[in-house]
Amino acid sequence: MSVRTSRTRLITAAASVALAAFSITACSDHGDIGTATGPSLRATAPAAAPASPTAPSTAPSTAPSTAAAPSADTGGTTDKASTTTPAPAAPKPAASKPAANTPAPKAPAAPPAAKPTTCEGSTTKTVAAPLNRPVNHMLLTVTNTGSGTCYLYGYPAVQFGEAQSVPPVITDSKPQAVVTLKPGESGYASVNLSSTDGSNGSNGRTATSLAVYFQGPSGDESVGAGAHPALPAKGVYVDDSLKVTYWQQSLDDAVSW
Question: Global pTM?
Answer without folding.
Answer: 0.57
